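User: Let's play a game. I give you a shape written as tokens, and you guess the letters that built it. Ready? Here's round one.
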């Protein structure tokens, strides 16, 4: 059984119900009149005529399908009026043409109607459309169906109705007010002009038509108080409400079937207690809202806080639980505090739902509490920016694990978060749009997960507290650095299976925190943007690195795995170390720093070229592409270099020693130096271990500028010994084997008093001996000339030889 209660209010603010009159001497009068009798006459059991103290009861009148006609053209006197087990039509004179008119006036009645298992038709047609199936009560009040009848509410009355709501509409006049309670549904027409206000406490109100500001609204001309229940359009068409409104509890606006827009368009709105709007369909608030209480929004329907809401000053805060909020901008006073805005001047708590823009930028100056999953969208494809401004002194607290969905699928949406962010909750960024965190003092201690779109910061310090125990998780998303700050904090970074992009649009940024795989996933890193990204920590992510734009600055300790280099990679090596990963792509590699970088991979085939600007590059694998060794830098190793090589610094071929091969031209620039090493008393090259340096050039060997050849015989493990008989004879070593030689005359030998492996000096042991260079065809040789004996020594040697010959002949003669 559905129950509707409408309580009349006299001269009070919306929702404040006047005390209902009660009379200890009340007497119940029961209807005893016949059809077409007047309800105000003497046809009552218990009294000749009802008085204000009487309770009027209609019991067991009429039958199903046969309604009892009651004439009610006048004032109904009585404390209450109820129907039990009755089928009744009420109105003016009943006739076949049904052109009745009349007024039913209820004066200070405690209860206007109570229906129990009854069908009552007030002022409608002779053939009622109300239900006739007992015990399904129905009330059909349609005083304007074929006339101009009204119900006049005068005083503090309550209307209790257990009704079938299908056609329950009626016009209300008078100076009193009404309250709707109970779980049933009541339809209200547009023609009401009572002035006492309306309080929706429970049940459902369906609005049949729009109101007009100040006159003939569904709720009269007084204040509408929303204490509970449901307020909805009766159809899918919109309904305008032009009353001033008081919010006083939890109320549902709209429903899933009657989805028409509810527009609160004129008057003022006041929070008289903490209130909750459950929007089941779309709702527009175009009234400025005041009060010291909190407003909460939930439900699937949109809540539009239109232009007049921008003047709202309510101070209890706003909480978004679910559904969408379309909002206007807030305002900050010259002193820096929030003075008004659609969310008032209190804190905005984002526990769910979405904040939408209609295609223009929006600014919120209120402090923010993040407490769930919330989205920032635009309701069209226009690029838009939501600003969470700090100008009003607002701050943001991540109170619980929260998610910000920026833009949904729209990459043109930006959420610019300018407030300091604190709190211990984890924060997750989703959506295709961009979240910009601009305050470098953010110190929230939770993890930051970037799972879609872009998070943009000036520097790593914007990402939260400087602690190794917290990480920034990136998976299929971009972390962008826009500031010029070249330092970072110690927060770590975890890369998901779909990879992470580090986009540096400033001149450069340094990452001090370690980068690793997220849990057991294999994360990859892609570098974009024109700036330089410097990795300083010992990183362990396993999915490899792609440099798509700008520069990636690393060392062998900070870059794990392979590199796809389509831009620029800098190895800043301050100590000697090895990088064993593969490098491919169209980009370039630059070696800086005082240390030696050793490349051991045999698939190094990036095509952008290699520049050794400082320290050393030792190639033990295969390196494709051109190589430039600048003055002060060194190239070494026993690997294969496929591209053209130009050396203005030092060339130290081999691996103490070794054979180095070049698949293209090798050119020495002015003031270049070649370091050549021998570690054994031999001129025969070792196999497989080389004992002296040898350089094989498949292209042209060009000594373009003056080039010095420096010799070394005392390297680590050297067995060279000047006292060995090997050095008594002339020797020669092929140091260059090339396809052609140019400008051989520019190659010169650096003379020195060389030490052997035992520390013996060359000039002391091998006085008169020496080294020289020669070209034979396309090969270059290092030549050794043994020392020439002194004259006395030569004579002694000759005498010894003659004596030896004589002794030999004598022995031969003795044997004949």
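Assistant: Ready! My guess for every position:
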């Amino acid at each position: 059984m559905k129950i509707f209660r409408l309580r009349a209010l006299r001269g009070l603010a919306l929702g404040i119900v006047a005390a209902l009159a009660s009379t200890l001497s009340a007497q119940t009068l029961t209807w005893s009149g016949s059809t077409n009798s007047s309800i105000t006459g003497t046809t009552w059991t218990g009294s000749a005529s009802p008085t204000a103290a009487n309770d009027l009861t209609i019991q067991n009148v009429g039958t199903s399908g046969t309604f009892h006609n009651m004439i009610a053209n006048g004032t109904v006197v009585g404390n209450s009026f109820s129907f039990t087990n009755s089928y009744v039509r009420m109105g003016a004179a009943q006739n076949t043409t049904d052109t009745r008119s009349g007024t039913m006036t209820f004066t200070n009645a405690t209860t206007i109607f109570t229906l129990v298992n009854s069908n009552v038709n007030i002022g409608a047609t002779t053939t009622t459309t109300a239900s006739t199936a007992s015990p399904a009560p129905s009330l059909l009040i349609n005083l304007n169906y074929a006339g101009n009848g009204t119900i006049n509410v005068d005083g503090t009355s309550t209307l209790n109705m257990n009704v079938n709501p299908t056609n329950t509409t009626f016009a209300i006049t008078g100076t009193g007010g009404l309250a709707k309670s109970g779980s049933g549904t009541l339809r209200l027409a547009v023609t009401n002009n009572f002035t006492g206000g309306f309080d929706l406490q429970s049940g459902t109100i369906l609005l049949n038509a729009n109101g007009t500001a100040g006159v003939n609204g569904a709720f009269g001309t007084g204040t509408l108080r929303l204490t509970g229940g449901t307020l909805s359009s009766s159809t899918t068409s919109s309904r305008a409400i032009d009353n001033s409104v008081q919010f006083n509890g939890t109320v549902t606006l709209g429903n899933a079937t009657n989805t028409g827009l509810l527009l609160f368009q004129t008057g003022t709105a006041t929070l008289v207690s903490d209130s909750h709007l459950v929007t089941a369909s779309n709702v527009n608030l175009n009234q400025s809202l005041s009060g010291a209480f909190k407003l909460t929004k939930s439900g699937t329907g949109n809540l539009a806080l239109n232009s007049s809401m921008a003047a709202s000053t309510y101070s209890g805060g706003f909480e978004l639980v679910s559904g969408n909020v379309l909002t206007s901008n807030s305002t900050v006073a010259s002193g820096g505090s929030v003075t008004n805005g659609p969310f008032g001047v209190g804190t905005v708590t984002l526990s769910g739902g979405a904040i939408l823009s209609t295609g223009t930028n929006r600014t919120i100056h209120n402090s923010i509490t993040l407490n769930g999953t919330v989205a920032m969208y635009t309701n069209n494809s226009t690029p838009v920016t939501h600003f969470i401004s700090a100008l009003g002194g607002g701050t943001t607290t991540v109170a619980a694990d929260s998610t910000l969905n920026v833009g949904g699928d729209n990459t043109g949406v930006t959420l610019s978060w300018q407030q300091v962010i604190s709190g211990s909750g984890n924060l997750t960024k989703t959506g295709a749009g961009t979240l910009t965190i601009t305050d470098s003092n953010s110190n929230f201690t939770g993890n930051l997960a970037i799972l879609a779109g872009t998070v943009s910061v000036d520097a790593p310090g914007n990402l939260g507290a400087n602690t190794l125990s917290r990480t920034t998780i990136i998976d299929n998303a971009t972390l962008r650095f826009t500031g010029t700050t070249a330092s970072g904090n110690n927060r770590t970074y975890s890369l998901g299976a779909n990879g992470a992009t580090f986009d540096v649009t400033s001149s450069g940024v340094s990452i001090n925190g370690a980068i690793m795989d997220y849990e057991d996933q294999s994360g990859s890193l892609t570098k974009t943007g024109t700036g330089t990204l410097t990795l300083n920590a010992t990183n362990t992510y396993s999915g490899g690195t792609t440099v798509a734009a700008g520069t990636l600055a690393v060392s062998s300790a900070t870059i794990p795995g392979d590199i796809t280099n389509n831009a620029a990679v800098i190895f800043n090596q301050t100590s000697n170390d090895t990088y064993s990963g593969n490098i491919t792509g169209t980009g370039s590699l630059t070696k800086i720093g005082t240390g030696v970088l050793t490349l051991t991979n045999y698939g190094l085939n990036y095509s952008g070229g290699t520049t050794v600007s400082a320290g050393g590059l030792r190639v033990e694998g295969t390196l494709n592409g051109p190589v430039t060794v600048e003055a002060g830098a060194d190239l070494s190793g026993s690997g294969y270099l496929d591209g053209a090589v130009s050396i203005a610094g030092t060339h130290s071929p081999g691996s103490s020693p070794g054979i180095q091969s070049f698949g293209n031209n090798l050119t020495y620039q002015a003031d270049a130096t070649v370091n050549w090493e021998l570690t054994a008393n031999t001129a025969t090259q070792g196999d497989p271990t080389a004992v002296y340096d040898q350089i094989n050039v498949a292209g042209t060997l060009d000594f373009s500028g003056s080039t010095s050849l420096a010799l070394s015989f005392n390297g680590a493990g050297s067995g060279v010994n000047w006292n060995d008989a090997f050095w008594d004879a002339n020797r020669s070593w092929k140091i260059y084997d090339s396809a052609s030689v140019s400008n051989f005359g520019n190659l010169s030998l650096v003379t020195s008093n060389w030490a052997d492996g035992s520390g013996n000096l060359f000039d002391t042991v091998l006085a008169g001996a020496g080294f020289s260079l020669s070209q034979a065809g396309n090969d270059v040789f290092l030549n050794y000339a043994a020392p020439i004996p002194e004259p006395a020594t030569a004579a002694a040697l000759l005498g010894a030889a003659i004596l030896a010959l004589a002794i030999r002949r004598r022995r031969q003669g003795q044997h004949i």
